[in-house]
Amino acid sequence: MIEAREPKYQWGQPVVAAIDLYNDGSLPDAPQEDILLVVAGGPGEIVQIGHHDEANVPIYLVDFGVVVLGCLEEEIAPMAEALA
To answer: Which residues neighbour 32 within 8 Å (Cβ) at sequence distance 6 or greater?
Structure first.
């Protein structure tokens, strides 16, 4: 049995979008796919941490104020690093 990869970030941690985040079709209420939801640098907070079993990666539920998105580690960065 493969051990679950530990998350790099913590629940409640302030983060920013490391890249522009678009609707990949996972938000059916958004007007269309490929619409920009959060610009790179947009602030958010991790509100929950899950795990994708097949890929063995943490998934972060991030509240960006305008939308709550599931993000991978490479899609977000700690806010402290972004401000430095």
So the answer is: 23
| pLDDT tens per residue, range 10-60 | 999 999 999 999 987 777 776 666 788 999 999 999 999 999 988 899 999
Contact (Cβ atoms closer than 8 angstroms) between residue 46 and residue 62: yes
Phi, psi of 17 (to 5 degrees): -70, 125
pTM: 0.86
8-42 exposure pattern, b = at least 16 Cβ within 10 A, e = fewer: ebeeebebbbbeebebeeebeeeeeeeeebbeeeb
